[in-house]
Design a protein that fits this description.
Length: about 230
């Protein structure tokens, strides 16, 4: 398949078979992120799991030490004092039955959905709408909680949800091309640490198998797995 001239030029100087230390890989990715917008730096982790089996699912949330560079819109399902708490914490959309009707009609004005436990019978009915978008609140990742303030501020402050895909891959944005190399490396290590701690009991053999980093419009660079740990 033919590749664009821009991507072909960006690939120059990258050995596609070599594994680079993470700091060097990030430097190479940043140097090639020359779009007119601030490109997102993304990481891809190939894990030794088969998520078709329930005991090999990997999912969680991590707050990156240097944020993501992206401002998330947060929606909260809550009533009464908890609804007021959500608004005070900076939630963009707060409601109960009124918010349910909007979401059911396809009006989703948020990127992250949080709910208090008492709202889940209502929110559960939105599974077909929120589920495919990866927005369904879940207690395992802290989006079903009575700590509305903590959840909203975490989402606003750089928390990243991760979930393994069918092929055993976790992908996430870990910052922007404008971030320093040091901040991006810190964010990567925080994410990898969280994914490592989420290792399921059913995982066999090598858990973290391959790592690669890229920018939104740039080529991927393979990373030595040992350099992203600890």
């Amino acid at each position: 398949m033919a590749i664009g001239k821009r991507l072909k030029n960006a690939r120059e100087g990258i050995d596609r078979e070599k594994l680079y230390p993470v700091a060097e890989a990030i430097k190479m990715v940043k140097e090639r992120a020359k779009s007119k917008f601030d490109e997102t730096i993304e990481i891809s982790l190939n894990l030794g799991v088969d998520p078709r089996h329930a005991d090999q699912m990997v999912r969680g949330v991590v707050t990156l030490p240097n944020g993501t560079g992206r401002t998330l819109r947060v929606g909260v399902f809550a009533r009464g004092p908890k609804a007021e708490e959500a608004k005070a914490a900076g939630a963009d959309v707060v409601g109960a039955e009124d918010l349910f009707e909007k979401v059911q009609a396809g009006q989703i004005d948020f990127d992250r959905c949080i709910a208090t436990p008492d709202m889940m019978p209502l929110v559960g009915r939105l599974g077909k709408v929120l589920g495919p978008r990866g927005m369904m609140p879940n207690p395992k990742i802290g989006t079903v909680t009575m700590d509305v303030t903590g959840a909203v501020k975490g989402a606003k402050g750089g928390s990243v949800e991760f979930r393994v895909e069918k092929a055993g891959i976790v992908q996430a944005g870990i910052g922007k091309a404008s971030f320093s190399e040091e901040k991006l490396v810190e964010n990567i290590k925080a994410l990898v640490d969280a994914v490592s701690k989420a290792k399921p009991a059913g995982a066999k053999g090598t858990y973290l198998q391959r790592v690669a980093v890229s920018s939104t419009m740039g080529p991927g660079v393979k990373v030595e797995t040992g350099t992203v740990l600890g």
